[in-house]
Amino acid sequence: MKNTICKVATAALFLLPMTAMASAPAGGGVTKKTFLDVYKEGGWCMHFILLFSIATVWLIIDIWVRTNAKKMTPEADVQSAQQLFLAGDYVGAYAAMKAAVSPFAQVVRTALGSVGYGKEATEEALLSAVDKINSTLQTRINYLSVIGVCTPMVGLLGTVSGMKGAFSSLGTSGIGDPSGLSAHIGEVLIATASGLFVAIPAFMGFYFLRNKLQAAIHNLQDESESLFRNAPYEYLKDADVGQEATYAALPNWISSPDGATAQG
Fold first, then answer.
1. DSSP run (H or E) holding 14
2. What is the pTM of this model?
């Protein structure tokens, strides 16, 4: 289903400027041109604009799905964590969150790994995990801004290339061959307009998804922090809830309690 939506959206996004730029001859009729005809007429820069249009659609769909509340804070994960916290089973909660793959599970698991070091360490770990998720998704959104800036530049470069060909044709054959000149002018218009048609939805997606991400991050942080509100940190002191392997041993020049060195 997702692949079908992506293909339809890609075709719609890229065919829109092509449809808008059908040319009309002097007789008043409309010349029907296929997508491939208009694409070829746009020149070499259309290859890059096509890639940018596909990337725009893919990023918008991908980020939209990733920032949905059901994806960021799944109800099943929230209820599972709440039930285990109410039962005081923090080890079980860590195991459940480790088995889950949602951003909510990642944040709660990270915070539980530091719960034995006190409230301040737990809150810092929680906020750090939220910031990491926010940074990862924001980076994806920023790609839309990059596309919105670069695509018109590519179209402008195609415009310059088309104008060079137009003036070269005019200088070689003069005004007596308007067909050659009009072909280059058509390339100029298609390259410029195609770049703008791709840049506009890219910028719109950038601003809309950025705001959507911030709302999702606030909800994620609120749901995660609510689990640790009034947590019994005094009873969790030095508890190794995560029970992960520890690789940071004592330095080998320090003696262990039994009188031997830490290593050999």
1. helix 2-20
2. 0.75
